Amino acid sequence: MMRQNPVFNRRIGDRKGLRLASSTIGADGNHNRYPTPYLIIDEKYWILYANTAALREINPKLLSGEEGKNRANLLRYIKRGTTEFLDWIDASGHEPLELRVVCLNKARRCLLYKETFFENGVRQFHLNLLIVDAQNFADADFNTHRLVFTNTQQAIYVSNSAGKITAVNPAFCRMFKYAEQQIVGCDEITLYDNPSKTLRQDEIKLNLEQLGSWTGRVANVAHSGEVFYTSLNSSTVAKENSDDYFVVNIIEDISHQLILEAQLKESAEIDSLTNLHNRLAFNRYFSEIFAETQRNGEKLNLLFIDLDKFKELNDQYGHDYGDELLVNVSRRLQNTLKATDFVARLGGDEFVVLLRGNLQKETLTVLSNKLINALAEPFKLKDLSYQCTSSIGIARYPEDAVSAEKLLQAADSAMYLAKKAGRNCCCFYNEEVQQQAYSLVEQRRQIARAIADGDIKTYFQPIHNLLTGKVISFEALARWVVSEHDIRLPGNFLSVIENDPLMIKLGMQVATQVYQLCGILNRMHSTTEVAMNMSAIQLRSDELITHIETLFAKRDADFRNLLHIEIAEPLVFDRDPVILSNLKRLTDLGFHLALDNFGKGNSSIYTLKRIEFSTVKIDGVFLESITKDDSQDAQILTGLIQLLHNLNVRIICEGVESQEYVHFLLDRGCVLAQGWLFSEAMPKDKVLQYHRKHA
């Protein structure tokens, strides 16, 4: 299918541009002296001019007809390669194009060379056709006068199958600075620099023998010894009535093009903000240097640098301040490191440093601390004095990894170890810790699958009034139902995803289950409450809070008042403004707040003063040793119950597993309790039966 070229497909109605007579275009007659076909075409590929060789070799009627009415379109003469021609003619390069052209009703292999000119503001293409099939080269006179033509700008030399140069043209002599008699008869390998000599003898020769052509770039050597780079197009031409052949080699100097390519490549590998190498440059250099290190049996060291709390700077002051910090950090890194050390910015606030050689851990530690101290000095960011800390991970080849990809991963893993160690420090890669990290990743994957498959279900544990025995509330708890005999408690899996978005997904499922149970109890005209736990990441999630609001907002206030949100005390101590704001959204909806695990961890009366909790749940750890005569836990629990009574909050004691615990709590005025004495957590389908029995 022909390429849909926008120029070619325009309506060809106005052909004023074709009215130029061939005598006008080629008035100087120079083109008619060319021994090869020379054509001038317009943007629609109509032939405006054809020299004598073109009329002789292609078609004598190329320019017949009055005022160009019957002029030929060049596309009619392209037998094979129309799409390639349309792409090539519009491209900016000067590489020749090989394709089949119909010459005197016979398809022949040609090389096309082009130049673009503007005539009265109209673009024209000047084409030079070199016919390179056996028919032309079989004639000895053609060898002498057709190949070695004097006006072409491409350097051409002809060699035989043994690699001896048999003919050259003037452009070749100018390029290589040889006189014709100096080079003819010499071995063509003389023209190539290492490793292009090997390329010519191996790959190029093999392609010529098997495929008949080869195109690519090579390094050539002039007679003066100067090395320059060229594009080479080599094609074999069979000798008539013989199995032997000779090779036509067309050469074009691309030195200027290589300079431009190098400049473009360099600009593409420079980070526009910091002027350091970017990720593209790092990937290329890292791959090259790692391969070289492996070959030579050397060692390689990689430092992965991450700025601490960079996001907070952007969020608080704006990205202009963040960009200013990155620029200043880059300068300090360059000033601290040697000029031979490779440093790059991978993106964001991540930097890497590559150090070659057998450097001891002590040396790498000293250098890393030097970088950390340099970055810790205050920065002047516009009107702000800002102190930045950094975390550095160190990985070494071959001690920590045997591939480039694994070495980068090891350095990144070590950097996270530095973060966990308190930031503003450096850490080396630790295989044992990394294996633990891999194990956590696998556990998260399994938990994600369990959540998606509905294997993590919402169970409900009752809370009883010790005086009446009635159930007054149910607490929603997650259970991972692996099998009928393998039901895992939250402590076995929630800690793995406590800071993972999976907690938000799980929270949405639990909230939906709680809403459904509340609806069932409401239809039974029950006032039994339902409580659900929320973690830090859940309370920071606008998605989850909005989901809860959407579920409950359509129900009346009495319905919403039955729901309690249980939070752990450390969340209050974090004083996270997002958490506090979302807690207010929930209480504005009518939900009550319950403080969970009170007395365990960072307990503080200030917690109860800071947020209005309707219920406080005392951790069951205090009940475990109350039967001992000298139990300090019994004294602490007694004091906590008395304190909470004085604060006028409802008290629930967790972990009640025996009647002895019940008597202890009743003696101290705590009448609400939760524990296995009454029931373990149960699936939702058993809750109604339990509720009917104990309501």
Strands side by side in the biggest sheet: 19-20-22-23-24-25-26-27
Percent of residues in beta strands? 25-35%
Total strands: the figure is 28
Q: Estimate the global geometry from the Cα principal axes.
A: elongated
Q: On the 0-100 scale, what is the average pLDDT?
A: 85
Compact summary:
The protein is of the alpha+beta class. About 40% of the residues lie in helices and about 25% in strands.
Write the layout of secondary structure elements.
Blueprint: H1 22-25, E1 38-42, E2 47-50, H2 52-57, E3 78-80, H3 82-90, E4 97-103, E5 106-119, E6 122-131, H4 134-137, H5 140-147, E7 155-160, E8 165-168, H6 170-176, H7 180-183, H8 196-210, E9 213-221, E10 227-238, E11 245-253, H9 255-268, H10 279-296, E12 300-307, H11 310-317, H12 319-336, E13 342-347, E14 350-356, H13 361-376, E15 379-381, E16 384-386, E17 390-397, H14 404-420, E18 426-428, H15 431-453, E19 456-465, E20 471-483, E21 486-488, H16 502-523, E22 529-533, H17 536-539, H18 542-552, H19 557-560, E23 563-568, H20 569-574, H21 577-588, E24 592-598, H22 605-610, E25 615-618, H23 632-646, E26 650-653, H24 659-667, E27 672-673, E28 682-683, H25 684-694
Provide tags for this entry.
alpha+beta; elongated; 695 residues; single chain; 25 helices; disordered N terminus; six-stranded antiparallel β-sheet; 25% strand
